[in-house]
């Protein structure tokens, strides 16, 4: 076993362990955030019912009362819609706060900024009113934290599983070949040097290694990875 292969085996084991631990932590935080979101939603429903009931009572109408199970169901339904929105979007599809509909509204653009700066905590409310669309998008981004943590945990577990299945010997051979070149090495040259390798699988595995740069003209190593591999290549003949 070459020194680079031994180094890769250790690195793959460490990355898999870190991914599993990070995934477990993400699940714990995600569950906590979802529970907080649920009870905040329940509180908003309760306050809304209390306010509407008080308004009805002032007019002489009958006081409104929603049972506990119904308010719990409304809060749970909000979470279902929140998760549905999360799964309908790409993880990289974030809201655009520079869009024209997210700019300050008419009137607020002139005096809303001054109120937001001078008004303290109350000024924050004016800031939300000054950019209502952007504020609504920002609040949705915050509410999406719980679902994002849970789905992120799934991605971390998948990465840990993929890292465990990597071929250290094949990856070590490629790293050794790339270390012999100061620049990028063409893919065709790598394939010609080892035609028996399962290159479709090897390409996918190499993309999981931090420090490999895939260019149009070939594959190269970052300077940090070259420096890390340099002590391991002392007795390796290229």
Task: Please give a structural write-up.
- With 238 residues, the chain is mainly alpha-helical.
- It has 2 domains: 3-98 and 132-160, no CATH class; 167-233.
- The protein has 10 helices and 2 strands; from the N terminus they run H-H-H-H-H-H-H-H-H-E-E-H.
- The protein has a two-stranded antiparallel sheet with strand order 1-2.
- Helix 1 crosses helix 2 (68-88), helix 1 (3-58) packs antiparallel against helix 6 and helix 1 (3-58) packs across helix 7.
List keywords for this structure.
10 helices; 3% strand; 2 domains; elongated; two-stranded antiparallel ribbon; mainly alpha; 238 residues
The termini sit apart by 16 Å
**Low-pLDDT stretches:** none
Portion of residues in beta strands equals: under 5%
Name the quaternary structure. Answer: single chain
Computed over alpha carbons, the radius of gyration is 28 Å
Per DSSP E runs of 2 or more residues, the count of β-strands stands at 2
Number of discrete domains: 2
Largest sheet: 2 strands, antiparallel
Number of helices: 10
Helical content class: 55-70%
Structural class: mainly alpha
Q: What is the H-and-E element order?
A: HHHHHHHHHEEH
Q: Spatial order of the strands in the main sheet?
A: 1-2
Gross morphology is: elongated
Mean pLDDT: 82
């Amino acid at each position: 076993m070459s020194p680079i292969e031994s180094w890769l085996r250790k690195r793959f084991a460490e990355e898999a362990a870190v991914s599993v631990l990070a995934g477990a932590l993400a699940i714990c935080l995600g569950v906590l955030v979802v529970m907080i979101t649920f009870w905040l939603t329940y509180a908003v429903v309760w306050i809304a019912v209390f306010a509407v009931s008080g308004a009805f009572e002032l007019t002489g109408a009958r006081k409104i009362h929603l049972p506990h199970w119904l308010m719990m169901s409304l809060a749970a339904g909000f979470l279902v819609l929140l998760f549905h929105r999360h799964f309908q979007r790409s993880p990289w599809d974030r809201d655009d706060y520079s869009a024209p509909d997210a700019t300050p509204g008419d009137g607020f653009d002139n005096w809303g900024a001054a109120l937001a700066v001078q008004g303290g905590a109350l000024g924050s409310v004016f800031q939300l009113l000054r950019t209502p669309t952007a504020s609504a998008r920002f609040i949705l981004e915050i509410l999406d934290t719980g679902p994002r943590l849970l789905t992120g945990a799934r991605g971390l577990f998948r990465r840990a599983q993929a890292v465990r299945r990597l071929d250290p010997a094949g990856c070590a051979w490629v790293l050794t070949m790339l270390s012999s070149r100061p620049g990028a090495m063409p893919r065709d040259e790598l394939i010609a040097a080892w035609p028996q390798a399962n290159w479709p699988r090897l390409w996918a595995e190499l993309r999981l290694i931090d420090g490999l740069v895939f260019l149009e003209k070939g594959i190269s190593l970052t300077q940090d990875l070259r420096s890390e591999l340099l002590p391991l290549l002392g007795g390796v003949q290229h």
